[in-house]
Structures are given as C-alpha cells and as structure tokens.
Design brief:
homodimer; 250 residues; alpha+beta; four-stranded antiparallel β-sheet; 9 helices; 48% helix; DNA-binding
Chain lengths: 250, 250
DNA sequence: CGCCTAGTTGACCAGGTTCAACAACGGTGG
DNA sequence: CCACCGTTGTTGAACCTGGTCAACTAGGCG
C-alpha cells in the first residue's frame, strides 16, 4: 500500500531524529513503530498549538518547519525555536498540560499527531521511552540556553551566523542536507523575530555574511561556502545540541 | 538532635518547592523524605557544577542563590537562570550526562547533594517521582522561554522590571518573602549579565524604576511599593512559572 | 585608616531601529 | 501572454537606545 510506505518513511524521520541524540533500544524502537499517528498538513502561518489551550495530542514534524512563538502586548512577536522534521514540538504539553506559548507552521508542513493517552501508555510500559523523551526535552532546554546566550551577548552578525549554523547542523542530523547545501525556506522576518533584531538589520547581516563568502541564502536555499569561517564568526559550538558523534558536524 | 532538625527544615524547603508546582502524593513524599542528602556550603562565586564535566551528584539549593552561566570566548558572561531555595539546578545532568554550562553560587549558599544513583533508584521505584522531576524541568524550560522573550523584545527598563517580578514571585512561592519585601542579595553585575545589559544601564533602569515608585532594591533588600504598576510595566504574566493557584501572586 | 567592592553619574559614541522608497519575484486573472 | 498585485528582499538616512569610558561616592572590613 502506498499509504503504508508513506507512513513508514515519515516515521523513519522521527526515528532518525531520536537516533541522532540517543541509542534507541530494539524494544523501544518497536513500541514507537507501533504508535498510531494521524497525518495532517498545515498552511504557512497556521497555528498547531495555541497558548493557554490544553492539547490532547502531541505532534511530530514530518516535512517543513514550525516555530514556537510568543506575542507581546505591543504586537511584536518573539520566536523561541524552530522545529525541523523529526522534532516533537509540544512535549511540554505532555508533562505540563498548559501551553504558555503557541506553535505555528513557518511554511507549508506535514505533521503527525498522536494522542497523549497513547504515548502515556507507552511511557508506562517502556521506561526507556520516558527516558528518551525526557532527554529530548532536556536537549530542547539546552538549545534555549544557547539561544539566550547568543541573544544577550553576541552582536547582530554573529547572532545571525549562529542561527544559520544551528539550523544547518540540525537539518544535517536528520538527513536533510546534501553536501554543504540544504533547503531553508524561512523569511528574513522569521529570522528577525527569532533573533530579536529588526528586519532591516537581518537583511544587512545576511548580506555582510554573504559578502564575506561564508554562505548564501536566497530563495529558500542555503549554501555554505566556508564552514570553519562561519563557525568561528558565530562562536558556534554544537555541544549544546547533544548529538551523538557520528551525526555531528566537526 | 539539632542536626536532624536542620535537615528536616531544609528538606521542607525542597518539598515546598515541589508542592508549589504539583500535587505530591503521599508515597512520593515519603520516598523523597528518605533520600540521603549531604549538606555543603559554598562561598560566593564558587562553582558547583562546571561545564563539560559529567557530575555524579545532583544538588538542591537550601539557602542563598545560585546562577547558571556560560562564558563566551571574549570573556563576557551570560547568566541563564537564577536558582532560589528549593530549586534543583542540575536536573539536566541526570538525563543528559554532560553539562554545557556551569552553575555557581551568587552569594554564600548552603546546598544539598544527592547521588545520581539514589535518585535513579527512586525514579525506577516511583514513576510519580519521575513525572514530578520531568515537570520541574519542563517548568525550567518555560522560564527560559519567558526570559528569551524578555531579552529579545523588551526595552531595558521593562526587562529589569520583569526579572524583579519573577524573582519576587519565585521567592514568595517558597515562603521567603514577608509581605511585599524580601532579601535579594544579587549585585547589579549579576543583573547585567543575566539581562544582557551593561552594568551602567542596569543601574539607570533600577533607579528609574525606584523613582517611579515601583520598588526599591538596596543592600540586598527588595521592597515592592506598587505591584500592579510593576507588573504592567514589565508585562509580567506569571503563567510561565506554572505555580498552582494557591501559591501564585495575582 | 585604607583598601576593596558595589553603586552612581556624566559625556561621548556606536550598533541597531525606524521610516521610507524601491526592486525582484511569483501568482492570478483578464 | 502580459498586466497587476502582494509578498519578500534591498538600500539609504535620521534617530535613539543602550554601550563604553572614566571619574567619583558610599559602605564594609581588616
């Protein structure tokens, strides 16, 4: 069946993500393979999870990019994280019940939904799964810390460079890069709201980095020309992503 | 025995913290009461947990304030969080093994240490404990997000005000405030490194807020004069602390 | 009394914001 | 096939928040 193959491929993305950060035992793997997942698609800008609403389902990204964000009283938006294929954006809702922010599709996406009830049953039967999910959410917190440091102490250009580094490494870990290029369909407005910078400043920084020959980003395509240079300009240390050696990029 | 009473009081602080965010069942409570904790004290500035070193113990704050921080190549410091009594600053090490940042005492502190082995045993026997700790670490992540938003999108004065709000509410939740005042022995340098601002700017903002009659902070004593005014100036919404109703402050 | 740390204030400067206009691109409908 | 329009990206100029440098004050402690 075509449908089954599609689902197999999609789950493979999730499994690859989990593999990239931890060793998944055969029993946990089997249990996760059996988890019932309903596929859905999202239009750009559409909310998946809305603040203050307790969700009954978790979602996993199959294709596209999602972002978590918070709106301030004055209407400005702060993007808190991007979620690439394989990520589970709302693990928080499992443990906390309430969301204090929202998650939306940055571009057209396909996602999978599984019920809290199912995953809780899985967790009870397989403590290994609980550990694994805990690990994933700790890594997410580590990402927030790195982001915070970048925001607080790095000048605009380095800050932009750091985000590009992170996204490239994360996309690479789930097999979505070819050589030193990948699809990265975010707008400069996404960047601005994520980095706490103005759109204008993002544009200038991006151009400055291009002129330095570090990378090019246009029409949703990222091509990295000088990875060591980019890394050092950004002060990027991938340790906080907690990828296993074989998945990380020197 | 004097020693035993001391220990009882100290554990009470941890339990109060846990109570403030979740309902702790009688069996979990008992299990936690039995956990072996070694007490230690820290001089101001002393590291408890150092980056890149896999620790074998977790620590819990009894008295004083700790901070997590990261050092950048250029020598500047970004403080990622403050930890008040009752907090467990390095839950991350339990699930992740490696620390990607350090934790140090902001002032003279007393802390408790318990071994990873002990707590892991506890987790295995009592799934409720695992859930509880997971919840605590999710709340910590939520705090990071709020911090990030503040850093990215709030002007300096509001940003300072927001931190004061958070610290006051958290100290209140563990019973360390009396009325609208509390001890808050952080230096302006701590504030600056936490907020990503310069020391000078923190000083000016603090003075501006004092002149507006919102609060006073001097010699380690915080007195809040106008809580509603402070809250609205900061755009502070305590939801992200995920305190249970009875512990939160309107 | 003297030193050290923490806090305060002024003057100047720069990184980043805001405002505004325009260019490039893709999709839509006539 | 082309004209039109909305979105995204680009650039210049004026402005302003917050950073840097520097000097000085106020406590705390040996």
């Amino acid at each position: 069946m075509v449908g089954r193959n599609y689902m197999r491929d999609r789950k493979a993305r999730l499994m690859r993500r989990l593999d990239s950060v931890t060793e998944v035992g055969p029993r946990e793997r089997e249990a996760l393979e059996d988890l019932a997942i309903r596929v859905g698609s999202l239009a750009p800008g559409q909310d998946v999870i809305r603040a203050y609403q307790p969700p009954q389902e978790c979602c996993v990204v199959f294709e596209g990019i999602l972002h978590r964000y918070q709106l301030l009283p004055d209407g400005s938006r702060q993007i808190l994280a991007f979620h690439v294929p394989g990520d589970i954006p709302d693990l928080q809702s499992l443990g906390l019940g309430v969301m204090d922010h929202s998650v939306a599709a940055s571009v057209a996406c396909t996602v999978g939904y599984f019920s809290h009830a199912d995953i809780n049953r899985l967790i009870e039967r397989h403590p290994g799964v609980a550990k694994l999910l805990w690990r994933v959410s700790l890594i997410e917190a580590a990402g927030l810390r790195a982001w915070l440091t970048s925001m607080g102490r790095r000048p605009a250009v380095a800050h932009v460079a750091h985000l590009v580094c992170e996204l490239f490494v994360r996309l690479r870990a789930v097999g979505l890069t070819t050589g030193m290029r990948c699809s990265l369909p975010l707008t400069q407005t996404h960047f601005a709201d994520a980095l706490g910078l103005s759109l204008v400043q993002v544009n200038r920084s991006l151009n400055a980095l291009r002129r330095k020959g570090l990378f090019e980003l246009s029409r949703g395509q990222l091509v990295i020309h000088d990875w060591p240079g980019l890394k050092s300009m950004a002060g990027f240390d991938p340790a906080y992503l907690h990828l296993r050696k074989e998945w990380s990029l020197g």
